[in-house]
Structures are given as structure tokens and as C-alpha cells.
Amino acid sequence: MYVSPSEGEVEEVFHTLTQQDHYPDREIHVYAGDFNTHVAEELEHHITLQERLTISHRVGDYQIASPPDEAAITSTRISSPQRDCLLLRMLDTTSLLILNGRFEAVDNPIPYTLQHQGEATINDYNCIAEKHLSKVKT
Questions:
Q1: End-to-end distance of the chain based on CA atoms, in angstroms?
Q2: Backbone phi, then psi, for 84, in 5-degree steps?
Q3: Domain total in the chain
Q4: What percent of the chain has pLDDT over 90?
Q5: What does the alpha-carbon distance between residue 104 and residue 56 come to, in Å, rounded to a whole number?
Q6: How far apart are CA 3 and CA 91, in angstroms?
Q7: Nearest Cα to 47, choosing from 35, 62, 58?
Q8: What's the mean pLDDT in 58-73?
Q9: Which among 29, 77, 95, 97 would be 20 to 30 A from 52, CA to CA?
Q10: What per-residue confidence (pLDDT) applies to 8?
Q11: Which residue segment(s) compose the domain that 87 sits in?
């Protein structure tokens, strides 16, 4: 499923994705999209300390992530930190993991999806259910 929410639809899209996570275990779904978020190396909060031993570390953007902005969304223009928070909240609610930066070889650069004036960031994310992570091949 490819996701690219428009201005004014961001919160609704994340809410819909959270509510639609009811697939049979045998069906693997990858959520890919231009979420216009920037979570750097922020870990998905649903990963337990024990799971961190078996789930590969994710290398994210080399920039510092914006601190999640929990402020109420009261306008159609959602800030970048609010989008970051919505993505992380959706991942935690659905037990999805970000695939970007987990499987790249050490000598290969992270596939940044936005490069502008010397900055590089990942705006497009690929996510999969934690229970299906073992099926991902590099």
C-alpha cells in the first residue's frame, strides 16, 4: 500500500491506517509512502528490550530528529514534529517497524529520499508488521 497524505488529510490518513490493521497472519503487507516525516534514528517504542537483541538496529538520518510534538492539531497545516509523532504513534499501535536503514550494507549509503542544499533526509518510509520482519530478505 502506497501512502502519500495531502495537506489537511495527514491526521486522518494515520488514523485510518491504525484502524485498518486487521490482516490475517499469513498476509504480509508493506506500507510504503511519502509520509513527510523525519524520525531519524528514533526507535519504534513498541520494541521491548528483549526484542532489541533480535531486531536489527535501524540507522536513520544523520540529522537530529525533531522532538515529537504532542500538541493538539487544530489546523489543516500540521507541523513536521506533529507528523513525526503521528507516524511513531501509528507504528506503535500497529506493531509496524520501519525497514529503512535496517538492511543496508555498512559501505552503502542510506537511501535518502530528499536531498536539498547539502542536507539529506528520509521522508519516504517502508514499514512492515514486526511479526513478518523475519521474512524480509536483503
A1: 20
A2: -60, -45
A3: 1
A4: 10
A5: 11
A6: 14
A7: 58
A8: 62
A9: 29
A10: 72
A11: 2-135
